Amino acid sequence: MKMNPYKMELENISKTYPSGDGTLVQALGPIDLRIPNHRFVSIVGPSGCGKSTLFNIISGLLDNTEGAIYVNGSRVDGLTGITGYMLQKDLLLPWRTILDNVILGLEIQGTSKREAKAKALPLLHKYGLKGFEDHYPAQLSGGMRQRAALLRTILYDRDVILLDEPFGALDAQTRAMMQEWLLDLWDDFQKTILFVTHDMEEAIYLSDEVYIMTSRPGTIKRHLLIDLPRPRKPQIITSPEFTQLKEEALRTLSEETLKAYQQEAAG
Ligand SMILES: Nc1ncnc2c1ncn2[C@@H]1O[C@H](COP(=O)(O)OP(=O)(O)O)[C@@H](O)[C@H]1O
Ligand SMILES: [Mg+2]
Fold this sequence. Notes:
Blueprint: E1 6-18, E2 24-36, E3 40-44, H1 51-59, E4 66-71, E5 74-75, E6 84-86, H2 98-102, H3 104-109, H4 113-126, H5 142-155, E7 160-164, H6 172-189, E8 192-196, H7 200-206, E9 209-213, E10 220-225, H8 240-266
Parallel strand pairs: 3-8, 3-9, 6-7, 7-8
Antiparallel strand pairs: 1-2, 1-4, 4-5, 9-10
The structure holds adenosine-5'-diphosphate and magnesium ion.
């Protein structure tokens, strides 16, 4: 047990995979991160740098090769069920209604269906899915499906929530709506959120802190504190402070994206 002010700490996290010829390939790290309670923290990095791998490790779905993870001062690496995790390809179960999908995490935890539904219904109503409880995922728009997946993650009720490119596949207008909605949700539920996105504007707009990763093996290249007033209003993206942060961040990211392309071209 460590006494400290952080909600979550990653110490020296790395991951290697065996490659085809038997040698080890470093896919990620080493990564050190310290996340205070109730922060909105974004992670941005070139495609393939290991963001999803990092989330898989934090969630306990994938073992790290080295390092340690602490939540509330207790060591949790290798353990599942500590964080709420919305996977990059989060599939709602097509044969379950929206309500049944949203209560899935609670059911897995052993909550009775009746109790889980009583908990979930007011949330569905408050967060824009009223009237769609008994619909199936295929009957909903992409934005609504993502909302349902997010509510499922929130209802699982962990302090730390991992969201892997939750809005990546949405059109710009839906995405903007979802950002407002997520900020409301974050405020209402007082979660600590780790958010992966490839959209720097989205990262800065939503976050208290943004980490920019290097190309593979992903390490932390830059840590930006986003000292913009809250509640955030969409017009802030045109302010000089925002523009300057974004330009600086994009310059850093584009160096790494270029390296990632070169790596890919080299095989
Ligand atoms: N099971 C695996 N075996 C071998 N390599 C993997 C495996 N999973 C991911 N990788 C590699 O690890 C790197 C990081 O992948 P990923 O975490 O999905 O990146 P990102 O989410 O940042 O786009 C990629 O180069 C990918 O090819
Ligand atoms: Mg990914």
